[in-house]
Amino acid sequence: MRYLLRVCGLALFVCALGCDRRIEPFDPAERPAEPDLSKIFPAGAELAAEREAASTVALPPPPPSRGAPPVSGPAEPIRGTVTLSAELADRVPPGAVLFLIARHGTSGPPVAVRRIRSPEFPLDFAIGPDDRMIEAMPFVGPLRLSARIDADANATTRSPGDLRGAAEGSFHPGAEGVSVVVDEVL
Questions:
Q1: How far apart are alpha carbons 178 and 79 in whole angstroms?
Q2: pLDDT digits over 96-115, tens only?
Q3: Region of 174 on the Ramachandran plot (φ > 0 left; ψ -120 to 50 alpha; else beta)
Q4: Which run of H or E residues covers position 52?
Q5: How far, in whole angstroms, is CA 174 from its chain's centroid?
Q6: Which of 27, 30, 33, 174 could form a Cys-Cys staple with 76, CB 3.0–4.6 A?
Q7: What are phi and psi of 39, to 5 degrees?
């Protein structure tokens, strides 16, 4: 019995010495930054992301006359219209919610989301800094816009019969006349 207690005590002592969680004290002057994902994703994952980024066609930023924001000032919203394809006009359930989503690239977390209850189409929209998911995340482009009409009004579920669509290309804050067409059934 003593032997077992000694072994357990020694094991606890070794574990306590080996525990280095690197917890640092709170620093109020620290600024938010993008996380280092190389610690999470295996080597080679960045190549897939680079290939995906290279395969997307990015539009140049809009000319200043179209309302592009000044470099030093706050970002302007992206404005446009969401339309529903004629084939899907009768597929929108009553009480559905339209989620308008802006993100960098074709996947990854959204930069901004606008939630619109019981949408009527065509729908004029503006999505901007006030719709950001994380306040500290800057609303900068290029951004890709997509829309999803969700029957259960829950952003985390994707049910058969929900509708979705996207705008062609990517856009910078201040862009106007963006057309998002909902034309696909999940």
A1: 6
A2: 999 999 999 877 889 999 99
A3: left
A4: helix 45-55
A5: 18
A6: 174
A7: -80, -20
The rounded distance, in Å, linking the Cα atoms of 166 and 143 is 12
Please tell me the distance from the alpha carbon of residue 130 to that of residue 102, in angstroms, as a whole number. 12
Percent helix / strand / coil, the chain, rounded to 5: 25, 25, 50
Cross-strand partners of 81: 124, 179
Strands (E), 17-150: 78-84, 97-103, 112-117, 123-127, 144-150
Contact present, 142 and 53 (Cβ < 8 Å):
no
CA distance 146 to 160: 18
**pTM of the shown model:** 0.59
Residue type present at position 95:
G
List Cβ neighbours of 61 (8 Å cut-off, separation of 6 or more). Answer: 68, 141, 142, 172
Look at residue 14 in the predicted model and tell me its pLDDT: 62
Q: Which tens digit of pLDDT belongs to each residue from 66-92? A: 444 434 446 899 999 999 998 888 888
Structure tokens at 78: 């992206």
**Residue 13: both structure tokens together:** 């002592």
Token pair of 52 as six digits: 């995906």
